[in-house]
Amino acid sequence: MIEVHGLAKSFAGHRVLTGVDLRVGPGEMLALLGPNGAGKTTVVRILSTLLKADAGRAAVLGFDVARQAARVRRSIGLTGQFSAVDKLLTGRENLVLMAKLHHLGRGAKARADELLEQFDLTEAADRPAKTYSGGMFRRLDLAASLITAPPVLFLDEPTTGLDPRSRTGMWEAIRQLLAGGTTILLTTQYLEEADQLADRIAVLDGGRVIAEGSADQLKAKVGDERAELSFADTAATERAYAVLAGEDVLRGDGLSVRIGGVRELRLLLEKLDRAGLEPVALRMKKPTLDDVFLSLTGEKAGAA
């Protein structure tokens, strides 16, 4: 559905993309993660025909984004970082206007009503959009991008600035689109969002894809689970750290030890027991996308 080969783009001599390769299959969601300035939005703008690449090739539904831009635009929906909704119009008026711009004619009102119901906006349909909450506003913006029921949808940080409850509502709306077979390319600054929604994740850094796979596959690259151990006091923590010398152990308020499985955990606890040490708390921690992001890009997740 989406194919990208060797995509390159520079702005004022600064290279933003240096050879990006991507592929998104039918009904799949690919999430693009990366630090600020990694080129996530630039990729979306090129694929949605808003920007021309300097080099490389990109196609959506087999249509070349440079040579067949009109065909591409008829096949996609786009929800960008900045809303296309007119705040002075009502929710219904916004959707009817978009439907008419897409030449739906007499079917414009029916399509608007269908989307208002789909995105739980029927009760607010005749209120000016400026009175909507952040979550309602973004749902209306997403609905506007779906007027023609496009098979491919680009979501460029669709939940930025939303409170957790509104973000969860948007996630549910996106899940419904995926269940209906829509192919989605998502950029997000929320690692949990990519973890929850995406079939695959591509990490952009330095203008190219440096890692790609499912969330579990990327987490596996960071390493095994870690046992988080807490002790009664600082002295006990220091003694435990000395006992475990030679292990893959990190020291903080407690100790964090890499564990390859149940057998290694048992041996670790036996080693502490022989030294007369017993943790007051034990928690197993699997690698997270935050760990992946830091490992791959050298930046914390908040920079995504």
Descriptive notes:
It is a single chain. The protein has 304 residues and is of the alpha/beta class. It has 2 domains: 158 residues, P-loop containing nucleotide triphosphate hydrolases (Rossmann fold, 3-Layer(aba) Sandwich); 62 residues, Alpha-Beta Plaits (2-Layer Sandwich), CATH 3.30.70. The strands form 3 sheets. A 6-stranded mixed β-sheet has the order 6-7-8-3-9-10, with helices on both faces. Strands 2-1-4-5 form a 4-stranded antiparallel β-sheet. Strands 12-13-11-14 form a 4-stranded antiparallel β-sheet. Strand 12 and strand 13 form a beta hairpin. Helix 5 runs parallel beside helix 6. The longest helix is centred in the middle third of the chain and has 16 residues. The model has no long low-confidence stretch (mean pLDDT 90).
